Amino acid sequence: MRPTPRTKGSRRNGLALHLILITGMVLSLFPFYWTLVMATNTTGDIFRYPPKLTIGSHFGDNVSKVFDSIDFPGSMLNTFVVAVSVTVLVLFFDSLAAFTFAKFDFPGRRALFVVLMGIFMVPTQLQAIPQFVIMARLGWIGSLTALIVPAAANAFGIFWMRQYMMGAIHDELLDAARLDGCGFFRQYWHVALPVVRPGLAFLGIYTFIASWNDYMWPLIALVNPHNLTLQVALSQLNGVHSTDYSMVMAGALLAMIPLLVVFVLAARHFIADLAKGAVRG
Amino acid sequence: MDTTSTAAGAPRGRRAHLPRLTRQAPTGPGAVRPDGLRRAPADHWPKYLAISPFYLLFLAFGLIPVVFSLYLAFHRWDGIGGMEYAGLSQFRYLLTDSQFWNSISVTVQIWAMATVPTLFLAMVTAVLMNSAVRFKGFYRVAYFVPSVTSIVAIAIVFGSIFSTEFGLTNAALRAVGLDTVPWLNSPWGIKTAIAALMTWQWVGYNAIIYLAGLQTIPSELYEAARVDGAGPVQSFFRITVPMMRPVILFTLVVSTVTGLQSFSESQVLLASTSNTSNAGGPDNAGQTMVLYFYQQTFDNNDFGYGAAMAWGIFLVVALFAIINWRLVQRRER
């Protein structure tokens, strides 16, 4: 609905509209504020009635208790290593496969693409047990390899990048590159990749966020309590020290911050791309 | 026009590179390089190499596991010792396992309690945002943030908000003179808490998708309706809802597939309320299908039964997916 000419009534409507939207926004952001409140007060302050609703001054204490209870920097580093490795590998493998599917024909192409789409449907828990067994045979259980290798390429990314590349890369560009003597890989690297950079940015952020937040598989695969990812370490902290709310919340807050920063920096384009993709589907 | 419509005959205009997912022919002849099939397969090796990483990984960590889990479902195995052939007994046990049936009903109840308000609130939010002129970008980010936040952290936060003795929800109830509710210690309380968490997390995400859908509806439709004397409510149900149907179905499918496989929400929420990691909550009311699967497999080391249950869960999700699919089909006819 387009904005109508502004009259007194419509201005009042506009005010009501923003009031409702702001209420929703407050509800949406409140749990973050509450996390901050709890993480900066003592557990006693929160357990009082009425509870303290303002930001306190005990954040440092709570954080140092977190660092005493779990290997927070180590887990954060692990999470970072996994998320970056997975993102880089996914960007490379998925875009390379997507480029091939989008712009070339070869025997078996159609069948291979149907298989790819079918893999979308396989639920993760069906793979969890045997994947665990295979990892155990390979000796990867407890190591980050178990998280990185199976996630290095995925059907969603290939599908998404293929859709993007079909329109973004013009055939004339590839023809010109071929006349200049570019082989298959150089067409991908020098012609395709620079053109689809916005698409790669979306896929990269999406992959990074998903990997950072992944919980079930790391919980299964990381059996060594001293070598965990952030999410698993956080859940361990919560399980063992669930009565010390302030400390657990300080951990939760620290675990959220890096991701929130990544997201807010990239938010505009990321949200628009995601919404477009969904509406298209 | 010629710059956007390629030889593929793709739809023209800005969305030329965004063909619909349904019923497309991904291998339409014009969409690909003309130097295709005339060459011998051996000449195509760079292309096979280029797509091979995904298929190799899928073979090792996808296909072999799925086949193996079928094999495993016919055996008894604790993950360490020898495997013992068990025939159909794991499946027979699954069918009589009241806790498994309970987990199905718990999952579906929580899914319904979360999905209905989520999609409803998302639609309301999207319609409001669509008619807002200013601050649109700001709202979008603020509403979207919950969906990218770590589920473990969120579950911990909601655990404290709904805590029976010290929670914010009960403090608010006390403040207005109402009785407190034992959220995390009663069957309906725990389901409500989990559903509230999911709703909070996914309203914004779905609202953004609805907003994008709303923006593709031509405004002439609304103007024509207004000329014909339709009020805002009428044009919502006569124009917005029918035009948005594919988008609504998309969000419904996504929330079905993810909602029926929910695990982390209840796993983390329940871990903080009881001493055993094997918790299903009061009366197992928070034990979703995948949580029960996880506990049987990795806490009790019952790999054979876990594999059988994984197939059971797969069937339940597939059943719901087929129902969704039917809805889509009816639309296209």
From TrEMBL, chain A:
<dbReference type="Pfam" id="PF00528">
    <property type="entry name" value="BPD_transp_1"/>
</dbReference>
<keyword id="KW-0812">Transmembrane</keyword>
<feature type="domain" description="ABC transmembrane type-1">
    <location>
        <begin position="76"/>
        <end position="266"/>
    </location>
</feature>
<comment type="similarity">
    <text>Belongs to the binding-protein-dependent transport system permease family.</text>
</comment>
<feature type="transmembrane region" description="Helical">
    <location>
        <begin position="76"/>
        <end position="99"/>
    </location>
</feature>
<feature type="transmembrane region" description="Helical">
    <location>
        <begin position="140"/>
        <end position="160"/>
    </location>
</feature>
<dbReference type="GO" id="GO:0055085">
    <property type="term" value="P:transmembrane transport"/>
</dbReference>
<feature type="transmembrane region" description="Helical">
    <location>
        <begin position="111"/>
        <end position="134"/>
    </location>
</feature>
<keyword id="KW-1133">Transmembrane helix</keyword>
<dbReference type="GO" id="GO:0005886">
    <property type="term" value="C:plasma membrane"/>
</dbReference>
<dbReference type="InterPro" id="IPR000515">
    <property type="entry name" value="MetI-like"/>
</dbReference>
<feature type="transmembrane region" description="Helical">
    <location>
        <begin position="245"/>
        <end position="267"/>
    </location>
</feature>
<keyword id="KW-0813">Transport</keyword>
<protein>
    <submittedName>
        <fullName>Sugar ABC transporter permease</fullName>
    </submittedName>
</protein>
<feature type="transmembrane region" description="Helical">
    <location>
        <begin position="15"/>
        <end position="34"/>
    </location>
</feature>
<dbReference type="InterPro" id="IPR035906">
    <property type="entry name" value="MetI-like_sf"/>
</dbReference>
<keyword id="KW-0472">Membrane</keyword>
<feature type="transmembrane region" description="Helical">
    <location>
        <begin position="188"/>
        <end position="209"/>
    </location>
</feature>
<keyword id="KW-1003">Cell membrane</keyword>
